[in-house]
């Protein structure tokens, strides 16, 4: 069965420090991969996506993610975190042959210390 | 409109009442998805439309849940005889086509069943 695991429920980093949020997936083939961010009371905003090709993808707000097939991972990174990055982050797998429905991880809540 | 619009933003109902949640997708978007997000969890897929056709309803939790998109644009998610476990945020998303196209999310409807 398809699944997504985000091992870290809550992460706290200092402003200006680097960030890596982990995501592991289980899927029978190469999936579509996404990272979304959700602020309180808001919907989900797409940060970046991977479909094929270059395994390092760039997104909005200075985020990037690297697809590693051998590790079934798609970790999100940012070199320098800003206070406004505090939010909930979701990794998702898109099923290629099921209309593109998304399977989400449980999310990682990011707190930023001044 | 510019984005996916959901109404109402908040809905409080007594157990046993019927509720209807509305989603206005981005104009021209073919695919429409409904997700349920319980408190502290990632969104979970409910159902998927391509134009007016409901192609996947495998995520609907019970036959009390019903969704429609009669003209291929606005969609309504109806829950009959609501129960306390139906309390959640219901998210709607749309995309231009299926699969590779990223999904754009609305801000959700927060449903509370008393």
Low-confidence stretches of chain B: none
Low-confidence stretches of chain A: none
Count of helical segments of chain B? Answer: 0
Which sequence of SSEs, written as H and E, runs from N to C of chain A? EEEEEEEEEEEE
- Measured as a percent range, the helix fraction of chain B is under 10%
Describe, in plain words, how this protein is organized in 3D.
The complex is a heterodimer of chains A (114) and B (114). Chain A has 114 residues and is an all-beta fold. Chain A is 0% helix and 52% strand. In chain A, strands 2, 5, 6, 10, 11 and 12 form a 6-stranded mixed beta sheet that branches. Chain B is an all-beta fold and 114 residues long. Chain B is 0% helix and 48% strand. In chain B, strand 5 (44-50) and strand 6 (53-56) form a beta hairpin. The model of chain B has no long low-confidence stretch (mean pLDDT 94). Chain A binds chain B through residues 4, 32, 34, 36, 41-46, 49, 51, 90, 92, 94, 96, 98-107, and chain B through 4, 31, 33, 35, 40-45, 48, 50, 55-56, 59, 91, 93, 95, 98-108.
Topology of this protein?
The complex is a heterodimer of chains A (114) and B (114).
Chain A lengths: L2 E3 L4 E5 L4 E3 L2 E3 L5 E7 L5 E7 L5 E3 L5 E5 L4 E6 L8 E8 L7 E3 L3 E6 L1
Chain B lengths: L4 E3 L2 E4 L5 E6 L6 E7 L6 E7 L2 E4 L8 E4 L6 E5 L8 E8 L8 E2 L3 E5 L1
Parallel strand pairs in B: 2-11
Antiparallel strand pairs in B: 1-3, 3-8, 4-5, 4-9, 5-6, 7-8, 9-10, 9-11
Briefly, what is this?
The complex is a heterodimer of chains A (114) and B (114). With 114 residues, chain A is an all-beta fold.
